[in-house]
Amino acid sequence: MGRKVKYCLLILSLLLVGCMSSSMMVRVSDGRDDYSVYCDGKLACETSDNCIVKTMTAGDYVHLLVVRNGIIYGGVNVYREGNASASNAAWHGWDPPSPSGHGLQVLGDVLTNFPLYTLTYFALTPSKHTGAYGMFPKEVVLNVGPKDSSLVNYPWDQPIK
Amino acid sequence: MFSSALWAKTEYFILPVQLHGVHGDYAKRIVALIKEYATIDGYAIVKSKEDCDYLLQIKLIREEVGVAVVIEKRKKNKKVVWSYGHIAYEPNDFIPIVSYVSRKIK
Question: Nearest by CB to B65, which of A69, A152, A158?
Fold first, then answer.
């Protein structure tokens, strides 16, 4: 295999692996900027001001939490949106080349380049291996506060009625 | 002896609930919920501090909107071994909080 082709495949692989990651702008519904944002249990943003969460998961969803002073104020599972099967369909025909019928030289070449093929294959067809479709939304608003506005002034200091 | 150790339930003693700007009725409610979930999840709430394996410290702290519910699992020497804090915007929010904590500490 030509050296140029190898480099092209490597660059393409790295580019496509990069495409599996995505960024989400996370906002909090009450507009405060003093929450920390956690993504799948890991601190993603120290503050909720201009918080951009980078997701690297191959899974179907990520779990976001907003936390202030160690207290969880809200959380949500963010799922991949839409269905990218149409765009993935173009990739489904792409498989690692079979060594059969090409002689030992080709077989050796394929074995030498197996990691490269594998990386490219997985990068090109993520949905086959993870079951994940679509991209994460570009922006997510995390709801903080009571669902019912009448509960904003709930009388916590009064006896239960 | 081995089988009794195998089937022994973890025993908790609930320390007096710390309240900040919250009426005592809510302390009673959350303690009642914990006792209920202890039965479901298979651990015991004991009446004597001496008999317990761990202490449970519950704090209800009034925030701008809602109440911060903090539940700490402590060793007998009061050292915190696990803690969970979640906002409750209404009393019914105690249920998922206690349910989660109960599954974690069982």
Answer: A152
Q: The tokens of B31 are what?
A: 């303690």
CATH number for the domain formed by residue range(s) A23-82+127-144:
2.60.40
Which member of B29, B68, B90 has the closest CB to residue A146?
Answer: B90
Q: What are B's interface residues with A at a Cβ cutoff of 8 A?
A: 21-23, 25-26, 29, 62-63, 65-68, 70, 83, 85-87, 89-91
CA nearest B31: which of B48, B14, B47? Answer: B14
Secondary element (H or E) of residue A105: helix A103-112
Asked if residue B1 is part of any domain, the answer here is no
Sequence spans of domains, chain A: 23-82+127-144
Task: Tell me how close the Cα of A52 comes to any Cα of chain B, in angstroms.
Answer: 23
Confidence (pTM): 0.73
What's the burial of A17, exposed, middle or buried (CB within 10 Å: 0-12/13-18/19+)? middle
Domain of B72, CATH number, reads 3.40.50.10070
Residue A96 to residue A116: CA distance in whole angstroms: 10
Digit-coded pLDDT (tens) for B35-78 = 999 999 999 999 999 989 999 999 999 999 999 999 999 999 99
Domain with B74, as residue range(s), is 8-105
Number of domains in chain B: 1
Establish whether this prediction's ipTM goes over 0.85: yes
Q: Find chain A residues with C-beta within 8 A of B67's C-beta.
A: 156
A103: alpha, beta or left? (left if phi > 0; alpha if psi -120 to 50): left
